Amino acid sequence: MKKLLSVLLSVYGLMLFSQIEVTPYPRTINDVVTITYGPDPVTGWSELDPQSENPLYLYLGIDTNNSTTVWEYHDQWNNCDPSNLIKMYYNASTNKYEASINFKTHNFDGAGGILPDGTEVSNGYFIIRKGQTYECAPDPGSASTWQTADQNFAFTPAKVILASKEVNLAPKIAEIIDGNLYLKKSGVYDIKVYDVSGKLLNSKSKKKLSANEKMSLNISQKGTYFCVVEDANGNKQSVKFIK
Asked: What's the predicted TM-score (pTM) here?
């Protein structure tokens, strides 16, 4: 496992396969993240065949310095005993394995421990594995027989906020990524976009949007802007973004 932590993730490893779903999106280290793994309609369990094994297990790693050569926080990897890892249980109604992760309380027992308040997290990855790996199994086969390739969490960089401090924060309504607005909850919103001088560039009133629906802010020129979002209850958030 040390080798895994000392090399760059491959392009293959950075892909999220259609069999693996990570929600919510967008997401930061402060979100409770749910991972599901199921068969692809065409290729089946091609990423990792569970062969009815239940549960599967999640191995986690976190990066805090924008360098994937060293993962400062990661779980302990044991080829034969995964009991320290998060369990992914099979849900017969969905035909998928499922698990949820609260990163703020997770103990990275391989290195780092629990994330301290204020730690800025820029990246993270996970591996779905069986109870045994090919180094331990009586019939080794290949690595892909026992574990998936590295999967990237695609976090939006953010600092860890401990639960005890979250009550002091105003509710987060929206997030902007690549010039697109994403709402945390479905509802009706007033949306206004300003430049740094305070000039109103565009606005939408009583816009009905679904949670995590992408809405383009229609900004073509490079620069710094502010988007003010207000929900039907009067909760307002100003989001600074750079095009």
From this structure: 0.60
